[in-house]
Amino acid sequence: MASAQQIKALLTSHIEGDNEHFFAVAMQVAAHEAKLGHGKLAEELRDLIDQAKAHMSASWSKRPTPIARPTGDLAGLLDASYPKILLKDMVLGERLKEQLARIVREHRQYAKIRAHGLSPRRKLLLIGPPGTGKTMTASALAGELGLPLFRVKLDALITKFLGETAAKLRLVFDAATETRGVYFFDEFDAIASQRGLTGDVGEMRRVLNSFLQMIEQDDSDSLIVAATNHPEILDYAVFRRFDDLLEYTLPCSQEIINTIKNRLGSIAAPNINWQAVAKAAESLSYADLTRAADEAIKDALIHDRTQVAEFDLQRPFEDRRSIRMK
After folding, report:
1. Which of the residues 51, 103, 133, 300 has the least number of beta carbons within 10 Å of its own beta carbon?
2. Is the distance from CB of 141 to CB of 223 less than 8 angstroms?
């Protein structure tokens, strides 16, 4: 039978919603029973664990999404979805992987951290060149935590009417308090650039001041994620309002290889010189690499080739680099 500590661990992980830990402890119990010679019981426990995992996977695709349908004034301000992408689906540097894994762990232990008067990292600022994974990260965090992703529509948020943008911002932060989710501000520099850089100085100053006040006062259970390709123009006061700064960079040689390999899969020719591929793809972003690989696959399919060779990637790389330079 399970020990008192194992039963306690099972109950704690269930309360905290930490399914990964729950199943790990359950497998420990099954392994212990097997060692004691209780083979039939151990097999039954493993079968039940497999059934529970399968049930969770099935229920994920069927889960109701009423909160992912903003209504009223919010309907025009937020795009909502339930992403299925996970962090393991992304190619990231080790430092970035560690930062994101830590954020996920903290939110999976949310109740324990809150019980000690602390808060998990909730306000995240993502900076780096286009196509390096910032937008995908917001989706992956939502996917990992089983939360809806609410993407703030800046074109609807920012208006020319005095005070209206700040009022709409208030609606977004009120929504974050009422409905737990990942609230994503892409192209964040549109509302957070240095005061004095914009043409309509007075109004944008008020908008930035409003944002700074709202994010500082925010004590919701939601994640507030902001992303920008231009950190150099952000107002200095913005940085200290966030719990974590995550810096995205263009992929290194090994990350280029991993990205292309993952995208090509079994269609990649066995004799590809991957170091040469990495050299040819220097300065391209993750998004560029993915699109280039997709183009190479489509070209192979169109011409009835069963594999993508090294030379098939050269033209897509050149095309992506040409588009980037325009």
Report:
1. 51
2. yes
Which among 32, 34, 28 is positioned nearest to 49, based on CA atoms? 28
Tell me how far CA of residue 184 lies from CA of 13, 69, 159, 236, 324, in angstroms: 28, 16, 19, 20, 25
- Residue 117 neighbours by CB distance under 10 Å: 6
CATH of the domain at 197: 3.40.50.300
CB neighbour list of residue 306: distance below 8 Å, 6 or more residues apart: 267, 300
* 139 and 19 housed in the same domain: no
Do 143 and 200 share a domain, yes or no? yes
Same domain, 158 and 261: no
One domain, residues 103 and 45? no
Indicate the residue type of 157: L
Q: Looking at 18, 35, 62, which one is the last position of a domain?
A: 62
User: What total number of domains does the chain contain?
Assistant: 3
- Do residues 159 and 233 share a domain? yes
For the record, the structure tokens of 134 come out as 């910032």
Q: Are residues 94 and 243 in the same domain?
A: yes
In order along its 326 residues, the chain shows pLDDT tens digits of 567 777 777 777 666 666 766 777 777 777 777 667 777 777 777 778 777 766 655 444 444 334 445 666 677 888 889 998 999 988 888 899 999 999 999 998 888 888 888 889 999 999 999 989 999 999 999 999 999 999 998 888 877 666 788 888 899 999 999 889 999 999 898 887 766 555 555 667 788 888 899 999 999 989 999 999 988 888 888 999 999 999 999 999 999 999 999 999 999 999 999 999 999 999 899 999 999 999 999 999 999 999 999 999 999 999 888 876 65
DSSP string for residues in 50-94: HHHHHHHHHHHHH---GGGS--GGGGGTEEEE-----GGGS---H
Which class for 22: exposed (0-12), middle (13-18), buried (19 or more C-beta within 10 A)?
Answer: buried
Is there a single domain that holds both residue 203 and residue 277?
A: no
Tell me, yes or no, whether 98 and 240 share the same domain.
Answer: yes
Q: Which residue has the tokens 């010189």?
A: 273
Q: Rounded to whole angstroms, how far apart are CA atoms 201 and 217?
A: 24
